[in-house]
Design a protein that fits this description.
The complex is a heterodimer of chains A (about 325) and B (about 450). In chain A, about 40% of the residues lie in helices and about 15% in strands. Chain A is an alpha/beta fold and about 325 residues long. A 5-stranded parallel beta sheet of chain A has the order 1-5-4-2-3. A 5-stranded parallel beta sheet of chain A has the order 8-7-6-9-10. In chain A, β2, α3 and β3 form a beta-alpha-beta unit. In chain A, α3 packs across α13. Chain A starts with a helix and ends in a 6-residue tail after the last helix. In chain B, the strands form 3 sheets. In chain B, strands 1, 2, 3, 4, 5, 16, 17 and 18 form an 8-stranded mixed beta sheet that branches. An 8-stranded parallel beta sheet of chain B has the order 6-7-8-9-10-13-14-15, with helices on both faces. Chain B has a two-stranded parallel sheet with strand order 11-12. The longest helix of chain B has 17 residues. Classes of the chains: A alpha/beta (about 325), B alpha/beta (about 450). At the A-B interface, α6 of A face α7 of B.
Chain lengths: ~325, ~450
């Protein structure tokens, strides 16, 4: 079985994953198939594989993230890699060395895999261009978060059978969301119908040019949706007042049972986490039977195992 | 190297068989230029038969172009305060290579050029070290803080040719209104960077589809339009002499056209970057294309070329802004704005001639006679009696800008590896050759 997975991994022709942009639909499906197998591995008693034995994986996080970082850490360890976590407070970086200097320093340590999150769009690419190892983007500013989009797609596919033809409504702070951008690219590539629902102040400019139908009213936008994906209202990122208050936001854009009733009867609810109950999602929905939010966490580990394994297939063996 | 010795002595120079383009006299004709005593003696077809002065170096131009040296109204230098990026000397050397014979330096230095002694300092340093002419623009408000007006009268007496807050916009409308009223008494030229401070806050590129795809926060074109409209209202109200330092979108050109039609004393400039590049050049987060105002859409760029053609835009500047790895080698949102441009100003501007069919005389006017008129300089023309700031250039010579060839101390050129058609062969300031032969010891 191990050999079979590795064959699949080798058919993924990239040595870095900086975004969904640039991936062919077949390559996305390869990763999802690999991830399905990784789910099986993770559900066994013996979870450990050896494909990354002897490899060094560094998780370099310029922005704190318990969830994504631990997910990548677990994925690396289950594949047998030595994993090191580095959290770099952005203030100390600003004072001292540039990102490019940091890249050169890290490169000298000979890592095989670098998992990077940064608060600035494009930063992971800048860093990736200066190192010789494989690089995974774990989120760069409001640009991309490819493994999140992959885990979302994996979760949807396991419940709905396929992505093509699904109506997916992504709701909330689209403007600041890398999750939304990666999902636009991935779900469009696989043939889903995409909608965004957001207060007008939280929509990016020219959003209608990004391959989505745009709504500002939840009830209209949720009509007949198969998947309702809620985004965190990222209050810490906002330097302006985009919405007047949490209670007004929840009233008009928070997901409650009444609004969800406009979606299909078997519609499922997702959220990349961490959730703000009572802000973008009501607790009865977040913890209710139609919520896939816990399962997304499990799929996250599987998808990251798949990605690390696929990239590792291109690492030099000598 | 007799040419070198002659030039040092200010020996006469005769440029024969030249295509002479002198926008101030609407002249584009074959002829001869005679230079002696640092002054234009004759320039035009009528000089063809005249005898060369004794000891003159006679250059057969073989139909290449002779034009007035360029006047660049927007140049940032690092002196004082950031000499590692650019000094007056290094900027002047870059200028000489690009055919720029007069620099208007911006007051955004450390310290800010906001008092007469500092204007004097810049002039003295330039006199001692620079190989082209340098005229400082002084700050409009103390410390560039947008609050208190500077000593416009005394600064002007000290040698400041214009008043600007450089990269900064003056957000407070009442401050702007007062200083335009006050500056009017001294007939001082106000050059303003029109960008609404609140609308542009946090933005790092032009707002729109590209910014949204890249996940970068956008600056709407309205940030420029709103500020420009405000400024032009104030110019109408106060009668002040107002120059929009850089405009970058089609609607801004319309607004300037309308204000000019109403007879207000308003003019507009544009950087060569906004005439020849667009936001797509940013590609995968290339920080050398990050500038203020941000690069716009191709349709805006085309509108700006039309505005240059019809005279809505008066002046082309390099907006030369030296930045080093410490300020540019960052993720796009965190990198500094600005690009160098002295060396590529003319070659890039010739793209407008070659590819967009803008007449050569129109392009040169925006870098010679128009800035001279706005600033009250006697240069920028080949009229007999004018100082002999003269360039000889081949408008067709193909070349590629490689990083190693950049003369400026900073290398942040958006034209690195770009192909150009047209190159400066010789630059004279006050009759002395400063390029390709440097008169002063290095």
């Amino acid at each position: 079985m191990t050999a079979h997975i590795t064959d699949n991994a080798a058919s993924f022709p990239h040595r870095r994953l900086l975004g969904i942009e640039g991936l062919q639909p077949s390559e996305i499906l390869t990763l999802l198939d690999l991830a399905d197998q990784a789910v099986e591995v993770s559900r066994q008693i013996e979870k450990k594989k050896a494909v990354l034995r002897g490899r060094t994986q560094i998780n370099l996080f310029f922005e704190a993230s318990t969830r994504t970082q631990s997910s990548f850490e677990l994925a690396g360890k289950r594949l047998g890699a030595d994993v090191m976590n580095m959290s770099v407070a952005s203030s100390s970086v600003k004072k001292g060395e540039t990102l490019v200097d940091t890249a050169a320093t890290l490169n000298a340590m000979h890592p095989d895999l670098l998992v990077v999150r940064h608060h600035a769009a494009g930063a992971v690419r800048l860093l990736a261009d200066k190192v010789s190892c494989s690089v995974v983007n774990a989120g760069d500013g409001a640009h991309e978060h490819p493994t999140q989009a992959l885990l979302d797609a994996l979760t949807m596919r396991r419940h709905k059978g396929k992505i093509a033809g699904l109506t997916v409504a992504i709701c909330g702070d689209i403007r600041h969301s890398r999750v939304a951008r990666s999902n636009f690219l991935l779900l469009n590539a696989l043939g889903a119908r995409l909608r965004v629902i957001s207060p007008p102040t939280l929509l990016p400019a020219a959003v209608d040019r990004l391959g989505v139908d745009v709504f500002t009213d939840m009830r209209t936008g949720l009509k007949d949706a198969d998947i309702v994906m809620m985004l965190r209202l990222q209050r810490e990122r906002m330097n302006g007042s985009f919405v007047p208050s949490v209670r007004e936001y929840f009233r008009y854009w928070g997901l409650d049972a009444e609004k969800l009733s406009y979606a299909k009867e078997d519609a499922l609810v997702m959220h990349p986490g961490p959730m703000n109950r009572g802000v973008e999602i009501g607790p009865e929905i977040a913890d209710g039977p139609r919520s896939l939010i816990r399962e997304q966490v499990e799929m996250g580990v599987a998808v990251r195992m798949a990605v690390l394994e696929a990239l590792a297939a291109h690492l030099p063996n000598k | 190297m007799s040419g070198d010795a002659n030039a040092a002595n200010g020996a006469p120079v005769v440029l024969s068989n030249a295509r002479i383009v002198d926008p101030a006299r609407d002249l584009d004709a074959k002829g001869t230029v005679i230079i002696a005593d640092g002054v234009i003696q004759a320039a035009g077809p009528d000089a063809d038969g005249k005898a060369a002065p004794a000891g003159a170096e006679v250059i057969d131009c073989a139909d290449k172009v002779v034009a007035p040296g360029l006047i660049d109204m927007r140049v940032f230098v690092g002196e004082p305060g950031a000499e590692h990026r650019e000094t007056l000397r290094s900027a002047s050397k870059a200028a000489s290579v690009g055919g720029v014979t007069t620099l208007i330096t911006m007051p955004d230095t450390d310290p800010v050029i906001d008092e007469p002694a500092l204007v004097d300092y810049v002039l003295r340093r330039a006199h001692d070290t620079a190989i082209v002419r340098v005229h400082p623009a002084a700050a409009l408000t103390k410390g560039l803080e947008g609050a208190e007006v500077t000593e416009i009268g005394l600064l002007k007496e000290a040698g400041a040719v214009a008043f600007t807050d450089g990269r900064h916009s003056i957000a407070n409308t009442r401050v702007m209104q007062r200083l335009m009223t006050y500056a009017n008494h001294f007939d001082a030229l106000i050059m303003h960077h029109p960008q609404d401070v609140n609308l542009s806050e946090g933005g790092v590129m032009n707002m729109g589809e590209t910014a949204s795809r890249l996940g970068l926060m956008g600056i709407p074109v309205e940030a420029e339009i709103i500020m420009l409209e405000r400024d032009l209202r104030l110019a109408a109200m106060t009668g002040g002499k107002y120059h929009a330092a850089q405009i970058s979108c089609g609607e801004s050109a319309e607004i300037v056209r309308a204000a000019k039609a109403r007879g207000h004393r308003v003019t507009a400039g544009i950087s060569i970057n906004h005439l020849t590049l667009n936001e797509n050049d940013i590609g995968p987060y290339r920080t050398f294309f990050k500038m203020s105002p941000p690069l716009k859409l191709e349709e805006d760029r085309r509108a700006m070329v039309e505005a240059l053609r019809d005279g809505a835009i008066d002046v082309i500047v390099s907006s030369h802004d030296p930045q080093d790895v410490e300020t540019k080698r960052h993720p796009f949102p965190e990198a500094a704005d600005g690009a160098i441009g002295l060396e590529t100003l003319l070659p890039a501007a010739l793209r407008l001639v070659h590819s967009e069919y803008v007449p050569l005389i129109t392009v040169l006017r925006a870098m010679t006679s128009r800035p001279a008129e706005l600033l009250g300089l006697e240069t920028g023309t080949l009229k007999p009696g004018a100082p002999a700031d003269v360039i000889l250039f081949d408008p067709d010579m193909p070349w590629v800008l490689s990083k190693e060839d950049i003369v400026s101390r900073s290398k942040n050129s958006p034209f690195e590896d770009a192909r150009f058609q047209g190159k400066v062969l010789r630059t004279l300031v006050a009759g002395r050759t400063v390029h390709p032969y440097s008169v002063r010891p290095a």
